[in-house]
Write a structure and sequence with these properties.
Blueprint: H1 14-21, H2 37-55, E1 64-65, E2 85-86, H3 94-98, E3 102-104, E4 117-120, E5 123-127, E6 133-135, E7 139-142, H4 149-157
Length: 158
């Protein structure tokens, strides 16, 4: 394992701590047993959670699912496989389009967007074409690529 001055959260493991940061320390309990890796990992996870709470942000990549109907999750969405946490859907209003199509996201570090759908009465009725979605740091901008904009695209779907 190569020593690096800066490491990611995923690289912060019991093995790395033992080799580079806790070397020379006697990590043995009163019965002569060495401190197990799962106990060290528990302390790492606790420290990360504490910092995430204090900073009001997640340090690890988190896939968020905002279902159209929170009481009726889609069958193809599997926790741990397709998403890590569920949040309320993000409603879009006509004044959002008047604000150049910006939608403020409930996170300050947006990495990617899988899809945006139009929903009516808790049912998806239309998917925003991927080229229209412009990801920003903490917002999404929907920029229609057809003449007439969003209203023309929605009326053409029906």
């Amino acid at each position: 394992m190569e020593y690096k001055r800066n490491i990611t959260i995923d690289e912060l493991t019991p093995k790395r701590l033992r080799e580079y940061y806790l070397f020379g320390l006697n990590l043995i309990d009163s019965n002569g047993k060495q401190m197990p890796d799962d106990l060290i990992q528990n302390q790492i996870d606790g420290a990360i959670s504490f910092l995430e709470d204090k900073c009001a942000t997640r340090f690890q990549l988190t896939r968020v699912y905002c279902p159209p109907d929170p009481n009726n999750l889609e069958e193809d969405m599997v926790e741990g496989e397709n998403y890590d946490e569920i949040r309320n859907r993000i409603d879009w209003h006509v004044n959002d389009q008047q604000n150049y199509g910006y939608i403020q996201m409930p996170t300050n570090r947006l990495v990617s967007v899988q899809r945006i759908r139009g929903v009516y009465d808790n049912r998806p009725i239309w998917t925003v074409p991927e080229p229209w979605i412009k990801k920003r740091l903490a917002s999404i901008q929907i920029v229609p690529t057809i003449t007439g904009g969003l209203s023309a695209a929605i009326s053409s779907e029906g």
